[in-house]
Amino acid sequence: MKKLAYFTSLILFYSIAFLLLFVMVFSMLSYFEYKFGIQIPFVEVIENRAKVHVPLLGLRINVPFNYGILIMWSAMLYYAIYFYAFKNFLKVFIEKKIFETKPLKRLRFFMILNLVPLVYIIVFTASFLVRGVRIRLEDDYFIVLAHLAIAFLIYLYLDVLKKGKHIQEENDLTI
Amino acid sequence: MPIVVNLDVMLAKRKMKSKELAEIIGITTANLSILKSGKAKAIRFSTLEAICKALDCQPADILEYIED
């Protein structure tokens, strides 16, 4: 079961990494179609934005030609790293010795990654407040809440792992 | 730690090498080194028994309490 979870996360990571790389490359190329009229496959330019068609999945990703694309790319990069860390997090369970420094570092990294959206939402909310735009509880807030819940669970697990590591060290030094 | 391991003293008295003792009692030389250096957190009764048997001594000859 643990191995199944790990291999699922492995497939998930590579699929998402490939998808994000595809969207990233074609969103960059779409600019050439927009600016120079060069025909790029999987790309459709509509006024000031483009649509990237993802084959097989049938997805149509909107690509804005403004600063919004930077937010989109950073979110994509974040999720690529996130799923990589998630894969490493599950790897902890299939290793023979889990009460060691390496799994602890992996877990801590995954926990920090889950806290990153909090920074994003604070900046996002602050920008709305500064511009005087009314804040609406949209998907973004719920995603951040989900990330925070995951971070909290990992924090608890991290604590168990720390205590386990201490016991492991004591056991290793019992001759 | 106030508990001092006098294994070196006993080894010298019995003119035995650490490697030899490690082989007799069935632990690695690395673990014996941890024990000798006082870095060990605990010692199993079985290990203590094996050391006492190999060195023909009492636990008190190996372990000593010195107040800090």
From TrEMBL, chain A:
Transmembrane segments: 12-32, 65-86, 107-129, 141-158
Protein keywords: Membrane, Transmembrane, Transmembrane helix
Pfam families: DUF2975 (PF11188)
InterPro entries noted in UniProt: DUF2975
This protein's name: DUF2975 domain-containing protein
From TrEMBL, chain B:
Provenance organism: Seonamhaeicola maritimus
Protein name, entry field: Helix-turn-helix transcriptional regulator
Gene3D superfamilies according to UniProt: lambda repressor-like DNA-binding domains
HTH cro/C1-type domain ranges (all copies): 13-62
GO terms, molecular function: DNA binding
Matches recorded under Pfam families: HTH_26
